[in-house]
């Protein structure tokens, strides 16, 4: 490829698109032309660079200088002063919140400094619409390596040794899942990618698909070779039109280059990928429901076993993994299981991508080694709480996850540690709340979500979530009763034990963890009719009376 | 996906029937294509009229009850015509924490409709969604396919004037 004096990476992740990055790109392209720099400076639209709250932003390589919160005028200044004049445009640099001093290089900004990028290795660095750029960064070499020098068994062993576990929520060993799917007997087999990303407050998978779609396509092809399948499906939610568009484009390019299709790399291996679009049902993220939905029917889950690896799509053995799980695979194949296993903790290897949002100063997409503490995520990377407020709780895992209170800020984020305190790593949504959030209302919010998303097939979930919601609504309206907490706990435990699928089984988590860690607030609502956050309006009055 | 842009009510629905017929023909007898075809139909009509459901049922060989079952199961499909522009306020977790509810209330008052309804002049439909993936810039509001981030009630009016 042609070498450039400078590359201007304009973040075109979904966040920056909504902050107006297109105008910035246009201004830079026009400026580059006006200054006669077209032969020296390349302007690229990339996927999410990560720090969404600083958008629109551009990164200038090879120096690695980040300019933030830009207007089109700013963009023109960058071209004139930095690209043409060779000087930093100080007023547009990131300012360290503590010292107030400008920080020029992305690597030196706290938000980026503590990250470790494996899944997001290309995200924000390459043009996702140009397969050449993926290929230039070792793209499709893992597929080549697998097809030309590894047996399927060897691939399975490598993935098992890496310790990679599913990033879609359950954390099951990816290597073992591949092994089961490989061993299963079937005239046909399928490889499916779960890109439903239904947890509200999560946008990791979306960012991978928008920023580096080929990494997922490549991994699915590797999976196809390993389990003996020649057809893949990506099930993606309709709410993500940009991701759908980029993935479609990437698939087309991969077919043109013959990384998909017949006789890939001349090895006789055939594989192709198709997209299926969801239609707005949370439960379709659950694997059995997802497969039913691909078949064009109501996305209702069914009991497992049989697991999809044995009897899945159209009744054939099916391997289903999450987007982020797949995105790890090419890196593991190229760099080896040992390398991957050197990140993370004893039982949780590698990294995890989080969508950091809520009341933290720095919001966006972050990838850290497993075992990083919650405190580091919130305070070092997240920069602490906005408006000088207090940290109240971190919510992980969406509606199936839990609320982690301040006393557990030092918990290392890995599968085992979070499960121990009643929360889950989940898919990677990480919402930070401050004292403005009423914890009872927060629990009601999640229950409202699961209740309306319950598919209605099994009674514990259909009726139980409704009963829980009714009690929570009563409490937030000042009509709570003394025995409500006991009743909630009993209902929760029953649903956990008896619901058909993960939706129902995990729905009680937000309620149970908030009762466990914020019982006082429940009691205040029930006994004193007082909402300290001032969120529950019917209680507000009483609260004011109480204070005065 | 083609033609994502506009989910407005068409001027003349009749003209669209030959088009949907054509789409159905491409998938004739293929029951697995049901959701895909419904997506296309909704893109075309802005909703799923009864007659379209009947055509899909016949064309794909899926019982009408099942077509209806699928259409009502998925939140994305609608049985009633929508306004020319669809406003969707995100009430996913991040947006809820950052005040999405206040935007809903402001819009309900300003437009004089409840969530799920359409204004009398059919200019706007108001709906809630659960996360559009712009969580780091919460609260988010969608108008048709345009995402507006870090919205507050004051910004809402400014946004809506752009949509006639
Ligand atoms: C209610 C429910 C929703 C789920 N939603 C998702 C989702 O949006 N994305 C996802 O990858 N997995 C989701 N899962 C997990 C999947 O069932 C499945 O475990 C996962 O796709 C397996 O891939 P992995 O092993 O790579 O994690 C959900 C599970 C449940 C019970
Ligand atoms: S919660 Fe609103 S965009 Fe994700």
Task: Give a short synopsis of this structure.
The complex is a heterodimer of chains A (548) and B (164). Chain A has 548 residues and is an alpha/beta fold.
Describe this structure in words.
The complex is a heterodimer of chains A (548) and B (164). Chain A has 23 helices and 16 strands. Chain A has helices spanning 14-18, 21-34, 72-84, 110-113, 131-136, 141-149, 152-162, 174-183, 204-211, 213-227, 241-256, 287-294, 323-335, 337-341, 374-381, 415-420, 439-453, 459-476, 484-498, 502-506, 509-517, 519-528, 537-547; strands at 6-11, 41-46, 58-61, 65-67, 94-95, 102-103, 190-195, 231-236, 261-264, 269-277, 318-322, 351-358, 364-369, 391-396, 402-405, 429-434. Chain A has a five-stranded mixed sheet with strand order 9-10-8-7-11. Chain A has a five-stranded mixed sheet with strand order 13-12-16-14-15. A four-stranded mixed sheet of chain A has the order 2-1-3-4, with helices on one face. Chain B has two domains: 13-73, no CATH class; 85-160, Glutaredoxin (3-Layer(aba) Sandwich), CATH 3.40.30.10. Chain B has helices spanning 17-26, 34-45, 50-60, 64-73, 93-97, 100-111, 153-160, and strands spanning 85-90, 124-129, 141-143, 146-148. Chain B has a four-stranded mixed sheet, covered by helices on one side. In chain B, helix 1 packs parallel to helix 3 and helix 2 runs antiparallel to helix 3 (50-60). The longest helix of chain B is centred in the first third of the chain and has 12 residues, at 34-45. The model of chain B is unreliable at 1-10 (pLDDT under 50). At the A-B interface, helix 1, helix 11, strand 12, strand 16 and helix 17 of A face helix 2, helix 4 and helix 5 of B. The complex binds flavin mononucleotide and FE2/S2 (inorganic) cluster.
